[in-house]
Structure formats: structure tokens, C-alpha cells
Queue: 3 jobs
Job 1
Amino acid sequence: MRRIIALFSFIIAITSLNAQQKISYLLTNQADLNKVTVQITFDALPASDANLVIPRSAPGTYILTNYMAFVDDAVGYTTTGKQLPGMIGDGSFFTFGESNDLLNKVSYTVDIQKMEIDLLDASSSSKARKDYLGLFGYSVFGFIEGLETEAINLMINTDPSWPIFSTLRPDINRKYGTDSYEAENYAALVDAQYLLGTGVQVIRVEEAQIPLFVAAYTETTVALEGIGETGLSSLQKLADYFGYIPMPHYTLVYEFLTPISERHDYGFNMEHLNSMTAHRDISREYNPTNDLGTIIHHMGHSWLPLRSWGEGYRPFTWQVAPLIETIWLNEGFIWYVSFQNILHNEEILSWWKSNMDNAPDFIKTKTLKELSLLGSTQYASDFRIGKNLFSRGALMAFDLDGHIQKQTNGEKSFKDAMLGLLHWSNENQRAFKYDEIEPIMSQATGVDLSAIWNTWQKAPK
């Protein structure tokens, strides 16, 4: 009986251990500093079933980016030590043949320098400079198809003299040469940023309600404390508005760069779950106080859509830019909260209206949902689409706000509608469907919002 119990306990222990096993990623910065090698180790699969997917898009980017173009030397490794060359599939992925050989590791190289040269939008590209390597997770990390939800252990190896920083676990006390990180799943891994090199500066902003950091690479003189003060002010204003902070920590990631060419654009920024990234051309004067609206807006995305989202935004389809019907909500509602409610910008309404009035016919004739679908891949590539999406969403929020306040004698406002969406997402832990949005907001405010909702769904007159 004791032997049976011991054997049973051993089986349970082994089963538990296997359940806790993580996928391992190893990122190595090559000696020339312009390339990285990524190695992924996983439980063995038949080679015919192992597809290495390279992302084409990421949440909130609203664009297709051919990161596959910067990947070389894809190789699969079998449990017997055999190497199988990666072959480009019909989409953004590599295959490793049709054999039943068990594959448990793949590796590939990413050319960061080529990426920065070829991608004209700085907000889409990782960077490689003499004393700096700045990596967007989704631009360098692929995944084995079907394993996206598994927990991940990441190891980073670089020059022993280089400190390593990541928004996954921000800290002013950085390790040199090697560091490791845990990620809940693939989405958490690639949402983060990884900053390597002696050119990276990191400060922690004191007196913030949560750990707040500024991490920057700058090719000119910039006082990070000024960015930190603006970030602290933004965090406090958003916390006052929403009444709580959902992020466990937050990092403002800035790059001040010498332009690669006149065609390269350093104007767009990007939001992430617990961070934002900003890119600046050093030939232009920088004043951190002028970034207040930008930081509030992108930090505000940590509430919506990063923690309250519609279909297509999450779970994300990494191999394509998914068709999203609610970009106007993702962007417009936060534009309204940031600039109208928090900053009280008196001119912003006129600008939103002018964006709609001056739009070309191919934009004016589209319904809100149709325009959002168009913006799923072209939001910033033709920014008239993007500007009209957030302008329509912001003006809808303005109309909703006025109606809610009038019907409740000022006791409730658009903030209650926003909190209704956030609380609903927290309770249900899924994307809300399109026809669920208005009922959620109506219930949260106690006001029938259907008439205003239906009006804004139509193409502008």
C-alpha cells in the first residue's frame, strides 16, 4: 500500500511539474550589435505541426508590418539533434518539413538595423545604435502556433558591460550582461519593451501612486526629470478622473534620435498595457510640458482599450491586422477624456468637427463601423482615416456626456459610462460585442443612450 501511495504521489508530482513547465525564450545580442538571435524551446512537437509565426501586427497599431522581411536563418532542432531548415509558408510563418521528427527548439536571427532603415515609422521599428538596442517585443519575438497562451521564461544575453531594462519588470537597479523575465503568455511578452546598452538612462519618479519610471535613450541632452514630472502629473489627473489606477507599474519609454533620413517619421507614439513609447527627432526642440496631452492620452489607454476592449482587439490575431469595429471607441473616447474632461481644451471640439467637415468623400460616406474596419490597417498610413475615427468617437462622447448630465441633473456623466465599460470587462473578462456597448453604458448611467448611439452609427450628413 505504501508503495502504491508513493507511486501515486510521484505521478501527481510529475504531472504538476509538467503543467508548470514554461516555454523558454533566449534572446542574444550578436557581437556587431545590429542583430539579435532568438531561440525558443518548447515541449516536443512533430516537425510537421510546428509553425514558427512572425507577427504582422499588434494591438493598437492598426497596420500590417512585414517583420518577416527582417528574419533570417530560421532553423528547427529535433530531440535527436537534427537541424531542419525553416521554409517560408503561405503567410507570415516558417515550416520545418513534413516529417514526424520531434521538434523542441527553433532559432532565428532578426536584423534590427535593416528594420530601422526600411520601416519609415519609428513607432513600428526596433532600433540599433552604437550604445543602444531598443526592442519592441512584437518586432522580434515569434511564437510556435498554438502555444500563445503558455507561460514564458525569457533570458536576455548581451555584452557584459551593457545594462538591461524591460517594462516587464522595471527597476533602476539594472543587471549587466544577462537578465531573466517571466511573462504570463505570449501577448505579455511582446507587449513589453526591452532596452539594452550603456546609452539607456532610467529614473524612478518619486511620489507616484504606483512605481513610475522613465527609461530613455537620447542622442542629445534631455533632462529625464522633466518627462517624469509630466508623467506624474498625467498619472495623477487620470487617477482623479477614473478614481483608481489599474496598472501595477508604469514606464515612459522615450527615444531621442538622429533621423535615419528625411522620410523617416518620429511623430507617432504607442501605448502598451503598462507603458508607452515615444520617439523624437533631436533636430526639433523638445519641451516635456508640451507632452502633457500626449502622455495623458497614451497613459489613458491603459484603462481603455487595454483593459476594456471590443472584438478583434484581444485575443489578438498576430498573423494579420484583425478587422476591428471599435477603433473610434478605443481612440475617440480617450481623446475626449484626455483633452475635453481632464485638460479642458476649449479648441478641441472645433478641431474634431473640422476633421469631419474637411474629410474626403470616401471617408464621409462611411458609417462608423465601416470607417473603423478601414482603419484596421490604414489608421495612420492615411491619417485622415485616423483623425476622423477619433474625432467621431470623441464627438459622440461629447453628445453622450451632455445628454447624461442633463437627464441626471449633473449627478452622472460620461465618466460613469466609461466606468461601466471598465467594470463590465473586469467582471466578464472578454471582449464586448458591438451591440453590447450601448446597453452597458445605458445601464451604468441609468439613461437611455440609444438615440444618440444610433445617430452616430450613420455616415455623416
Job 2
Amino acid sequence: MTERLPAPRRAPDPGTVVYDLVGVGIGPFNLALAALADRVEPLRTLFLDRAPAFSWHPGLLLDGTTLQVPFLADLVTLVDPTSPWSFLAYLRAHDRLYPFYFAERLHVPRREYDHYCRWVAEALPACRFGSDVGSVSWEGDLYRVEFRDTATGERHHVHARHVVLGIGTEPVVPEPFAGLLGDTVLHAARYLDHRADLTDAEDVTVLGSGQSGAEVFLDLLRRRTGPSRRLTWLTRSPAFAPMEYSKLGLEHFTPDYTRYFHALPEPVRDRLVPEQWQLYKAISADTIAAIHDELYERGIAGGRVRATLMPDVTVTCARATREGVELGCRHGEQDRAFTVRTDRVVLATGYAQRHPALLDPVKDLIVRDDAGRPLIDLHHRVVLAEHVTGGLYTQNAELHSHGVGTPDLGLGAHRAATILNSVCGDAVYRLPIRTAFTTFGLAAGDTEPARRPQRGGATDPAEVRNVAVEPGSGAHRGRTAAPGSPTRSA
């Protein structure tokens, strides 16, 4: 089917304008920011990414895998359901509304989400791919953003009042595997590139029991049907545990919980995040059930199940051998060492925040916490030296300050709107004060939990106010939002 994109407007020459906001990186979070900013006039924005086009975890776009959040957690809907960049608008543009309606799906295929984001990225004039940002510096009263055109090699720079970092995370490679990455040891981020080789290998070991590890294990289990094919799944976690997906449990992914978490003392926040691993590092119940069903089918009529699943295992060392890889392991509860010899290893060991060299010119301006991490305020603005008047905002790098909802797609639109409100100095997007039924702690000065009336939802309409913004933080005052979409405070 031929895609019918909204006609893109011509973007200005980057060298001829001072931008109100420049975004570095175009993943889902900065793309949400670009989509919401597109309706705020006359805000001038530019978003740069070194990739030639939008691409979201291409190595893990397996058939049959879905998002772990409902389709309403698209780029814009939870802030602006009228936006032309919603997932429903995407379906309408591709004549897929009726198939989606009859499918009765709440969670959309991951491949379709990737295609939806590409549809938005290709249509927004503010998004510029093939632009590798080399440095961000503060000059006088503006940021200078230098980047290189990856197609021509030409170097450019632009000036901006505010910068938003959406550079994403990078694969985590445990220390025992440092120097071993290649065709024999690979991160799950490159799984699809190596799936054929992994299918044919005699013995494969998957390390890590998050959703990605479970999906890789299940895919290999289904594909590796030969009688001599062995598959091993190891994890440091105490169990192959399900994601916390109860309705009240999910309220940890609301702005209410983010505000509560941000106000906690730093030592309390640092203790809480590891304890909450089942909120964001575990496996969907459906995937666990599918793995068990596959193993059960293999054992019918005395069939041999050549699969080993073992939790509470830490890999302490690894070395390449002529036959493959040898892993030195230790079982935690038994405190016993053992060895695993395997042909291939897939590291489903997650992702971590990047520490980009492009920030080196401003690193001495960043105020840090006791652990050396950037201090980030509730508006996702990095705390900088007092003389820096422009905002340096961050997306998906604030797990330590904003909690487990940081990488969650369901909070992406809200965070983008919060950043826009802060940049503009006005609530160009109206955001609700209360989003959860749960009361997370006591407000300052309270001696007992508040008893707020609930009328039809988590938020009493009488209590809804525009999100607070820092006085004087915005580039523009008196700006009105796009008709029929976001509203502004009275």
C-alpha cells in the first residue's frame, strides 16, 4: 500500500535561524517532543539524528512481539488526543482503522509501532536525519550545536535557546564479556542479524531474563527443533518472574508517582530502583506462558526437552575457546561454582544511559549529586551553573531522579509536554494534577493522607490545573497553542 503522508513543510536553513529548541537524537521520546511542538506556534525547533532514517530496536522486531503498553501510549495521545500524529491517525492514513477495530487489540505489534514512528518522523519538517552531532557548548546566552552531514561530510552549526538530549541508551556488556563481542558473543540488540547462525549452532546460551531475553529464548526454542540442539537460559535474577501488571501496580508509571519519587531523598531513591525490578525488568505473563507451553509440547510422549533454565546464576568469567565460549558461573543460593561450555552466547543484559562526548564542552557546568550523576529537576531540566540561562533537558537519562517510569513509553508524551511547558514558560499543554488513585506519601506539612473526592476517574475535574512552570524559564510568553488541541492557563 502506498503511504499517504501529510505534506511536509519546508524546514528553514539551519544556519539562518536561532532555534528555540534543538533536540539531539530522534528516538520515540524526542519524536514525541517534535510531534507536540509541531502544534505550538511560532516555536522554532530542530531535531538531529545521525541515523539515515528512524529505526527502533531493529534487531528485536520479531514477528508476533508487541509493545508492553497499550496503543494509547503513542507519541501524543495521552497529552493531545486530537493530534494529527496519533496512532489512530496513522491507522486512518493507511486505511487500517477497520482491521485494527476488528482485531480488538490493546497492544500493537512492535513492527507496526516502528512503522508508525517512521511515518511521523518522515513527515515532521523539524526532524533531520543523517546529522551527527559532535558537540553542544554554551556561548554567551545561547547553545551552539555542531553537527556533520553524514552523506556529504559537511559540517554545520546552529544556535539554540534550549537543548533536549534524547540520545537513547546503549547495550550493556557485562565485564566478563568485554573484548569477546563478535559472531560468537553478541548482544540481543543484534539478534535478528545473527538469528540464522544461532538457529544452526549446536549449543546456544541466552544470558538475562528481561523481556528481550525471554523473547530471544522463545524464538530460538521454536526454531531449534533438532534432537541435538541444546539451549540454555541463565539469569542473575532470583526467578524467571512476571512483570508487575496489576492495575494499581501500574500506577507507578504515572506522573503522580514520578513527582513523589523525585521528592524523595537521594539514598531512598537509590534503594528503591533496584527493589522495583519487577516493574520494568521482568517478563510479560503471556511470554512466560508461551515458553512453558512450548516446553510442555516438547515433552509429550516422552519427548526430550533439551533446554536448561536456571535463575540465580552469575557469570563470573568468560573466555573464548576453539569450540566456542567457556563460562565460569556461580549459583547464588548454593554458593557453588560450575562451568558452561557453549557455541554461542546472546547477551540479553539490557541497556544503560550513554555518556556522550558531545557534552564535554558543558560537563563542568553540570551540577551533580553525591554519586556524580547530573541533578535533574522535576521538569527534566539538568541543573547547570547559575549563569547558564538556557535549559538543557534530558529524556530517558533520569532513572535515578524520576524513577522506574523513565524508560516507559506511557510517560513519553507527558514528559515531552512538561518540557515544552517549561521551555515556553507557559502551560501550552494542559496536564492533570492527579493521575492515580494511589496516594504516594504525604504532602509537605500533612499529618494524614488527603481524602480527595474521585469523580469518574483519578482526577476530579474541579482539581485540574495547568502544570506549574518555572517563572522566567521560557523562551516565549503569551504564546497561544494550536487551535483545538492544547489549552493554556487562565
Job 3
Amino acid sequence: MMTADKAEMQAEIAIVGGGASGVCVAHALARRYGIRAAIIEPSGQLGRGLAYGTLCMRHLLNVNSAGMSAVADDPDHFVKWLQNNGDPQARPEGFAPRHVYGRYLSSLAAEAEPVHLRAAAIAWDHDGNAARLELSDGRRVAARQVVLALGNFDPAPVVRVPDDAARLYHHNAWDDAFYADVRPEDPVILVGTGLTAVDVVLRLRDNGHRGVLTGISRHGWWPARHGDGAKPSAAPDIEPGTSPRAALRALHKAVLAGASPCALVSALRSRTNAIWLSWDEVQHRQFRRHLQRRWDIMRHRMAPDVADAIEADQASGRLVTQPGHVVGLEADDDMAVVTARTVDGEAKFRAARVVNCTGPSLNYAKAGSRLLQTMLNQGAIAPGPLGGGLNATPEGWLIARDGTVATRLATLGPARLGVLFESIAMPEIHVQAAALADRIAEKLRITGT
């Protein structure tokens, strides 16, 4: 519980970030230990974040309801919540709207009853007794433990945008201003063909957009679909210590024997982090360079209804895919001209608007967060070994620039992608949240309820 002492507020545990990760930690602390944490989050709604704040009901979860419980010791929690909150016929194999899932997370926040400080954390320091956070409204918070649950940030720039083309380019695919700016017949270029591009297609069509959409990405690959008819597969013979080359050979062998690549990726889900942690940095770089995108399209799949919509748009000619690498953007009167490097050389594409669909950036050093920048400058935290996320132990304790493990700083979710392979989906996040709650309670000598 937090109390006020002049300008400084006291908290047992302060969580920076009120999206899915932050709410899961707060709920685990309350459920397991009766702790009412403080959540520092400028938004008025807890649990929504970037992923679940959408109002478009065609934006569906890309994991079925059976896999979306946010409570580690109750795997049916989300399905039961759906059935008790407006959809008594909800099935475990269904794919719920993300907006509905945001309501679910908000309900967990209400159960946890955190102290919600509506401000941004902008600076951090500590002494032997507490960590201290400075907030954007001038308040300070002293806490025995701080959890960074910062989630996702805006995408990385894809190309230099000249001043006269700035009005034609939208850097943030989730910005309402983009959708208000696009006219129904406007041709639009999507830079990227992953799940963010899928979201943009669905929302534009939901808004009545009828123009041609052109998705440009290096390989021109869209995410695979769930329910492709493939039977569940036994995990191939890939264990921690298996090299990337040997793992690839094992996957190829299984595919040649008739296994679905998507089914194989799903079968490996429970051990991918252990395999990743057994590799060295050179092997990590090899995987990122040669296999990451192929893995992603099979791992992060579209719900069947979403895949149907994308395929229908492709069949109609209103959604066009162009393999290539965007290298330039310029304005020509009221049109944007995008230059892409393709297998046939450089090609130019015209559109009324261009939107960056490359997805959230994991380069926390360039995230534009005052808190992260302050902590990085101080050396209190450091980027992950490959430059993404934050450096941390696999259990979530942050590692400073000098290599020491922080005693009062922990993290979970996307930030752990600095060291883990799987850390952005709810099946991983809710397990991390419960385990982190247990570790914090043990560290602070707090007994369970």
C-alpha cells in the first residue's frame, strides 16, 4: 500500500507501465500475496496498451481463447470470463476480438486494485533502502521494488522522409489521424506485410476504404493462418544445445516426412526459450539473419476469419504484394513516390499515402522514453546483447551496463526479448508475471494470502 509523505509517495512495489504486462504482474501480486502495487501509467485505462486498445472489432487475437488466460494457475480463466461476460457460447478454440480482451485485462486490473498514478516515469535513482522514480507531474515515488513493464514502442524509421513528403507519410500505423486522413479511393502503400499490416488492412476496410493497398516487404510474406488443416505434430528432435544448422536439418527432415511447418513451430513452443539460451551470440545472429522472418510468419499467425479477409482482398486485386526493400520516398504533387529495390532492380510505386507497418521497435535505446534514456545514460540498464530489448537474466532481473545484476529492478514481456526468444505473447507473459511476483515476494519476505 502507498502512503504520501510530503512530495514523496511510498510504495512496496512500483510497476512502470499499465498495459498487459503491468496488469498481469499487479494481478499476480494481489492474487497470490495480497499486495496492492502502484502502477505508473499516463493512460486512464489499465490493460489496454497498444495491442488491446483497438476499437476495431475485426482485430482478433492471434491465439485462440484457450491460450489467452492471464492467470498462471487458471488456464481456463479467459474462456470462463468470456462465458460470464456476454458470450455464454464462447469456445476455447475461438478467436476473440482484441478489444474484448482489453476489457478482460481491465477487469483484472480492477480486481488487483492497484494505486494508479496517471503520469509518466521520467527519471530513476536509488539508495540502499529504496528505488526512486520521478514522475512527469512532479511527484516522486519511493519503492522497495520497481518492475519495468514498458511494452512496445513506435516502429523504427524505414526511410528518410523529406519535408515536402511528410504529410503523405504516417510513421505510426495505430495513429487515428492516419485513418481520418485516408479517403475511400486512395491507393495506400503499406511498408511491411506482417501482423501490423494485417491490422491496417482490416481497419481501413472497416472504415469503408475501397482503394488498392500495396504491401512492400523484403520477401513479400504475409503471416500464415491458424487452422490450415495441419494435424498437431510431435516436436522434432531439437533440444537445448542443438545448433541452428542441426535444428534446421531436423525441421527439414520433419517437413519432408509430411509435417506442417506451422505445426512444428507450435510443437517446439515449450522449449524454444531453452534452445535459444543454449546458443551463443554468433548463433543468435545467424538465426536472426537467415531464419527469423520465416519463423515469424509461421509462429505469429492470423485467426481464420482474418486470413479469409486478407485472402479475399488479394483475390479481388485490392491487396497487392511487392517483394522489395524500400530505399526512398519523395513527393510528386499530392502523391507519394516510393522507391523499392526489387529482384528486377529499383522500381517506383505511387500512392496517396504511405504507412509504416514494420511493427513495434525493440530498440529501447531509441524508443524516445525519458525514463529509459536516463537509465541507459546512467548505466543502470543496458540494451540486450543484439541491441534489442534490455539485458536481463532469464528470470527478469535487469543487468546494468557494468554487468552487475540489479537488486531493485525487474522486467517482463517485450523487454526480455533482449535475452529470450519468446516473450511477447500472453502464454509467456502470464507465466513470467506469476514467477516474478513469487520472486519479488520471496525477496521482500512477503508471505502469500
